[in-house]
């Protein structure tokens, strides 16, 4: 599954991942392969990513929006 984390300044991450945990405005949630389509707002927190090599990456965000569609996740973060 492809993940892109984009801020107004730069692209923080782009690559294949196994799972992503996101700080949704209604509570944190996870996304794995073949997740249902989704659009959600994000609150201040940490986006936690497990890549294909099972390495964990953390990205602090101040808010934003996430879209999940056809095994592609786009995070537009502040």
What characteristics describe this protein?
about 80 residues; mainly beta; ATP Synthase, domain 1
Tell me the layout of helices and strands.
Elements: E1 2-6, E2 11-24, E3 27-32, E4 38-42, E5 45-51, E6 56-61, E7 64-69, E8 72-77
Parallel strand pairs: 1-8
Antiparallel strand pairs: 1-2, 2-3, 2-5, 4-7, 5-6, 7-8
Would you mind describing this structure in some detail?
The structure is a single chain. With 78 residues, this protein is mostly beta strands. It has a single domain, classed as ATP Synthase, domain 1 (Sandwich). Helix content is 0%, strand content 71%. The protein contains no helices and 8 strands. Strands 1, 2, 3, 4, 5, 6, 7 and 8 form an 8-stranded mixed beta sheet that branches. A hairpin with a 4-residue loop joins strand 1 (2-6) and strand 2. The chain is globular, with a radius of gyration of 11 Å. The model has no long low-confidence stretch (mean pLDDT 96).
Which overall shape is indicated by the principal axes computed on the Cα atoms? globular
Rounded mean pLDDT is 96
Determine the number of helices (DSSP H or I, runs of at least 4 residues): 0
**C-alpha Rg, in Å?**
11 Å
Oligomeric grouping of the chains: single chain
Classify the helix fraction into a percent range. Answer: under 10%
Which CATH architecture? Sandwich
Question: In this structure, how is the largest beta sheet organized?
Answer: 8 strands, mixed
The number of distinct structural domains comes to 1
Q: Which residue ranges are poorly predicted, with pLDDT under 50 across at least 5 consecutive positions?
A: none
Please identify which CATH superfamily we are dealing with.
F0F1 ATP synthase delta/epsilon subunit, N-terminal
CATH C-level name: Mainly Beta
Number of strands: 8
The end-to-end span amounts to 23 Å
What structural class do you assign from the helix and strand content? mainly beta
What fraction of residues sit in β-strands? Answer: over 45%
